[in-house]
Amino acid sequence: MDFPFPWIQISDGALLIMLRKDNKPYIALTYYAKDLETVVANLKQEDISIKPLPTPDKLVQRFLITTDEGYNISLVTYFDGFAQPGGTTMLTMQPEDFKNPAKYENKICGIFKKDCAAFEISKSSRKV
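The structure corresponding to this sequence follows.
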């Protein structure tokens, strides 16, 4: 199934979640890129295994990276209509504001943070 498809965008003003109906359900972190071919070429140069997903035409290209742990990262052609919310996130707010609920975009839910190291695609996702 490709565009058009049933979908909904949910946002708290800072984060955007897109839910779409697909014949084969899966969960993925999706990265949209205007120059997707360059992104894919650069990742392949780093020996990251990328699987192209079928699309009925060349308008929207889709690729999939699956980690050892089974997590999916989708790479999709960006086109106008998808926009990131303009609200403040932990990446754009001042560190001193992390503990100030008055500065949160969503004052009811707050902000979510998990201490983590930089994401690195596991070695088995790389070509051998």
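Confidence is low (pLDDT under 50) at residues 114-128.
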